[in-house]
Each structure stands twice: as C-alpha cells, then as structure tokens.
Amino acid sequence: MTVAWTPSLFGGGDTAGNPAVDPAVVPRRIVLDDRSWVDLAPAWITGADAWFDAITAEAPWGQRQRRMYDPARREASTVIEPRLTCGWRVEEAPDPAPAVAAVLSARYGVRFDRVACNFYRDGQDSVAWHGDRVRFTHEAPIVAIVSLGAPRRFGLRPLGGGAATRLTVAGGDLLVMGGRCQHEWQHTVPKWPGAGPRVSVTFRHDDPGPRP
Ligand SMILES: O=C(O)CCC(=O)C(=O)O
Ligand SMILES: [Fe+2]
Fold this sequence. Notes:
Elements (H helix, E strand, L loop, with lengths): L19 E2 L6 E4 L4 E6 L3 E2 L1 H11 L6 E6 L4 E6 L3 E6 L7 H12 L3 E9 L6 E4 L12 E7 L2 E7 L6 E5 L4 E6 L1 H4 E5 L8 E8 L7
Antiparallel strand pairs: 1-4, 2-3, 3-13, 5-6, 7-8, 8-15, 9-14, 10-13, 10-15, 11-12, 11-14
Bound molecules: 2-oxoglutaric acid (AKG) and fe (ii) ion.
Fe (ii) ion (FE2) binds next to loops.
C-alpha cells in the first residue's frame, strides 16, 4: 500500500539502521488519579519511519465489522470499524516488535505476548471512547502503544465523569496505560481532519488473543 506521508529526514535506528528502542529515553509518568497512570516517552523508537514503511506495506491489514446495539433504533446493526487492524502472538510478529516487547516486559514486569496494530489511513479513521477488553481478564492491565507515522491526538477521560486529558502522540513515541486505566478511564483517537496516516502498535500481556 502506498500512502502520502513524508517521513522525517532523520533516519535513526540501530547501527544497521533498523528501528530500535533508544535506551536513553526514559518514560515520564502522568498520574491520572490515585489508581491510574499513563507513561509517555517521546522519540522512544529511533528509525520509526522505517518501521512505519514496512508495516504499512507488509502487514496483513483487514477491516473488522462488529455488531453494535443501537439504542435509538432499538436494534443491533453491523458497524464497519473506521480503521484497519491486524495482530499476532508476539513471537510471530514482524521485527522489531518482539525486541520492543522484550524491552517493555523488562521495564514493566509483565510478559507482553500479544501485538495488535491499528492503521489510521487518514484523519477520518479513528477509535471511539473505550476501555480495552483486557479489563475483563486483568485487574490492572498494562497496555503499551508505539506510534508510527503522522501525529494524532489521544484522549483519556474518567468513566465517572470529569475533565479529559488530551495528548499528542507522534511517530516513535511510546504511550503506556496502567493501573485501573482500562476499568475506570476510557481512551480515544478522535477523527482529525487533515491528519496523515498513522499506525499504532499495541502490546498486551497475558492476553488469550482475539475472540472468535
Ligand atoms: O491507536 C491508538 O493509539 C489507540 C488504539 C487503541 O485504543 C486500541 O487498540 O485499543
Ligand atoms: Fe484501546
């Protein structure tokens, strides 16, 4: 797939030019409340543009449909997700995802075993406010997200009401949600007219994988 996105001129990456974690970049914690937090590490991946190019061109992207209950019409209807997705068990994911998962596992003390990607082709693609499904199996799941490609807004809001936190994530940045974030907060990547293409590579731990 060819996408209209001009990557930065800074190649970066490891000595062979491959995308890699920059060990000098330390995540900064944003405390959302006394149970939930977000870690942010801008420019955590060097050579992120090469990862973006490879994953957009080579990953087995698909567009999922899901049945959603529409309270206004009092019936379920089929909704096509406004983004492309794909996913793997970590050991089957293309490089550098397994190496990045290993760095995350060492840092956060959990075994990241599932990699799932979202491809927002333009500013019309999005993900609505939600908590991740890992909340059904985990009391305090850690969800790590590496951004590739163009910058996008990332919103977090408390489920019980209150002010939203709005962040911007750019290519190479790491964002990690932890504590009770998936239970007591929701997150979104809103539509953003004019935005360029972005991929999010998400890492989840002790994850049984997608439901059939
Ligand atoms: O693209 C992102 O940064 C968020 C993706 C997300 O919320 C999800 O995959 O559950
Ligand atoms: Fe999510």
